[in-house]
């Protein structure tokens, strides 16, 4: 059953989030990092409504899946809200066990790198919200990669600046 109605720009007015289409490309990361995202599925809810100032994703992590490489943004705030499952939040402060109803926020510019891991045998489902600040850069302290948002697209390079 499709429970969507549309406005005059043919964007939905409301949807069942779980029925939103999966993001066509699983990740923008280059290899060898892209294959590490195999246990993650995103549904870009904000894009369906034409939102441009921030993004909202309904994200599913299979057992063993990770949300992203551990990372920190220079200009983008991020927020997560756990709907189902028990992921582990990894930050510079260590590990924090999360459960449904818990949330966490990551202020830009702090350098506090973060990621979620699903070490359980059950799926994890959460909402992630991030702004779309121009000029954002990302550091990945555990991997030889950095990223910069250039003309609306992520450009990835090694930490020495060599492009992927």
Compact description:
The protein is mainly β and 164 residues long. Helix content is 2%, strand content 40%. It contains 1 helix and 14 strands; from the N terminus they run βββαβββββββββββ.
Describe the structure.
By secondary structure, this protein is mainly β. It has a domain of 111 residues: Sandwich (Jelly Rolls), CATH 2.60.120.10. Helix content is 2%, strand content 40%. The chain contains one helix and 14 strands, in the order βββαβββββββββββ. Strands 3-4-11-6-9 form a five-stranded antiparallel beta sheet. Strand 1 and strand 2 form a beta hairpin. The longest helix has 4 residues. The protein is globular, with a radius of gyration of 16 Å. The model has no long low-confidence stretch (mean pLDDT 93).
Total count of strands: 14
**Would you identify the CATH H-level superfamily of the domain at 26-136?**
Jelly Rolls
User: How far is the first residue's CA from the last residue's CA?
Assistant: 43 Å
Q: Please give the radius of gyration in angstroms.
A: 16 Å
The helix content is: under 10%
- Write down the CATH topology of the domain at 26-136: Jelly Rolls
How large is the share of residues in beta strands? 35-45%
CATH hierarchy class name of the domain at 26-136: Mainly Beta
Could you give the topology of this structure?
Blueprint: E1 5-6, E2 12-14, E3 40-44, H1 45-48, E4 54-61, E5 72-73, E6 78-84, E7 88-91, E8 94-97, E9 103-106, E10 114-117, E11 124-131, E12 137-140, E13 145-150, E14 153-157
Antiparallel strand pairs: 1-2, 3-4, 4-11, 5-12, 6-9, 6-11, 7-8, 7-10, 12-13, 13-14
């Amino acid at each position: 059953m499709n429970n969507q109605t549309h406005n005059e720009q043919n964007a939905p007015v409301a949807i069942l989030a779980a029925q939103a289409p999966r993001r066509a490309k699983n990740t923008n990361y280059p290899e060898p990092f892209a294959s590490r995202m195999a246990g993650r599925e995103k549904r870009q809810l904000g894009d369906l409504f034409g939102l441009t100032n921030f993004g909202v994703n309904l994200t599913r992590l299979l057992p063993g899946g990770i949300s992203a490489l551990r990372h920190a943004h220079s200009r983008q705030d991020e927020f997560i809200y756990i709907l189902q499952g028990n992921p582990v939040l990894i930050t510079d402060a260590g590990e924090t066990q999360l459960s449904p109803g818990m949330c966490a926020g990551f202020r830009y510019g702090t350098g506090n790198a973060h990621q979620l891991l699903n070490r359980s045998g059950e799926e994890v489902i959460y909402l992630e919200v991030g702004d779309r600040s121009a000029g954002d850069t990302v550091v990945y302290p555990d991997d030889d990669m950095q990223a910069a948002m250039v003309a609306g697209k992520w450009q990835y390079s090694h930490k020495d600046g060599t492009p992927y």
